[in-house]
Amino acid sequence: MEEIILIGVGGMLLFAVGIIAFVVVHQRRVIQYQLNLQKIKEEQQKLLLHAAIESEEKERQRIAGDLHDEVGASLSTVRLYMLQVSKKQTLQQAEDVTDAAKEILDGVVAKVRQISHRLSPEMLMQFGLKDALQNMVQKLKDSGALEADFISPEEISRLQPERELAVYRILQEITGNMLKHAGATQMTLRLQERNNDLIINVEDNGRGFTQASFEKLKSTPGGLGLKNIQGRVDILQANINFTSVTTNVQGTIMTLKVPIRVEAEIK
Amino acid sequence: MEFFHDIEWFATISFLIPLIPGWILFRKLSGEFRLFICIISIVFILSYIGYYTSEHNIHNLAIYNLLYVFQFYSYSVLFRKLLPSNSSKWFIRIIVILFTVYIAVKIKSLVFPNEVYNSYLPAFMSLAMILYCVLFFNSQLGNLRTTFIYKTPWFWIVTGLLLYFSGSFLILLVTNYFMSRGNNFVRSLWILLFVFGIIKCLLMGIGFLYINKTSWKKSF
Q: Where along chain A do its domains lie?
């Protein structure tokens, strides 16, 4: 009996020591896990920042290229035409040159408007996200690249202008990718408002793209567009999700869930 | 016999290890630490009365019953403050209700005890304390406020309590059985109990070493 009691006491002590050891080891592991997670997040942030800088630089180069190659060249041509006007002998000849210069100038105006629109979508600023997205879908449809539908309720809550612009840029990137990589022939853009969230679905019939692919590609040195999407999603405190049954021809459903009012605004 | 009383004396006096720094820092400590210092001060006084009466062969079972009841209720209050979750607070509430019902049923024999030691009361108390300590450690599993849990005072204090009550649970439970048969083995077991008491106080003392200037006013 005495021995059993002593073994019991020893067992209880062992139990207590076991609990303490478990707590210490487990807590260390949790801390280590948290540190690793933080490290990964920091690396991800660095990648996003790098992507943002790179993207901005590319955009500047593109605008510079557009201005130099198209606007600059066209204006130089107009200048040459203007110089020729004084040398022409008849009024008819001078009018012909002026008409030609006018045509080129119309082209330049259109090009400048296009560049300006790309920098800051006029529709978005004036009428809001819903109309801007509808316009974007209409343009895709008009281009004949694919059949596009836009579904939305009559009224949608407005976000802050910079948040609307971020959503618009994400969808520009998504539709751009759809045309470039997915080979889709049909797409539907659906806007919904649920509680405090604006939910945007983009569904296509192209090559499937999964959430796993998104996570993988945005972490690779390339994948600039996807990094930008993730960066904007983070800024918006939103969620993005890609679902696809297979990676063949089943299509993709992208769901973007954006809080209409973020915590800071509510406070 | 002398050795028994010596180690009992050491076990009683060892309460001074956490008490001295505790009272020195008392004004600068947070509420939970202050409560803890008050609890072990009263436990020390009751233990000393128990030791004194035992030394002079005075009937002291009522004193020990009072000590167990006091320890149970005071540590329940302390752990209720330390444990953040509502489920833990409810658990403590249920244990307190069960204990109170037991006290109410046995009140006469606890206040006016006969010559037989009541094992169930301290065993119940020890078991409750073990569960409280386990709940405390469970709440600390996801605690990210500190990188090293063993650098927090409460870790050492609760470790001391867990080791003491785990070691004493069976001893207190079988004391009645051995005493009623006049078996001297119970004295050896109580020597072990006193050793666990000294270890508990040493661990609590280590806990007070980790109360640095920046954490005086913080619980963890």
A: 1-119, 127-266
Could A16 and B163 be called an inter-chain contact, meaning their C-beta atoms sit closer than 8 Å?
yes
Interface test with A, best of B170, B178, B185 (most A CBs within 10 A): B170
Just give the CATH number of A127-266: 3.30.565.10
Domain ranges for chain B: 2-215
- Segments in B112-210 forming alpha helices (H): 120-140, 153-180, 185-209
State the amino acid at position B182 in one-letter form: G
Question: Of A25, A16, A36, A17, whose CA–CA distance to B148 is shortest?
Answer: A25
Q: Is A36 on the interface with B (CB under 8 A)?
A: no
The answer to whether the beta carbons of residues B178 and B192 sit under 8 Å apart is no
Quick: pLDDT tens for B137-194.
888 876 666 667 788 889 999 999 999 999 999 898 888 888 777 777 888 888 999 9
ipTM above 0.85, yes or no: no
Say whether residue A29 is in contact with chain B using an 8 A CB cutoff: no
Of A5, A16, A30, the CB nearest to B189: A5
Residues from chain B that touch A13, judged by Cβ atoms under 8 A, are: 163, 166-167
In this complex, is the C-beta atom of B140 within 8 Å of any C-beta atom belonging to chain A?
yes
CB-based contacts of A234, cutoff 8 Å, min separation 6: A48
| DSSP single-letter state for residue B149 | G
Secondary element (H or E) of residue A258? strand A252-259
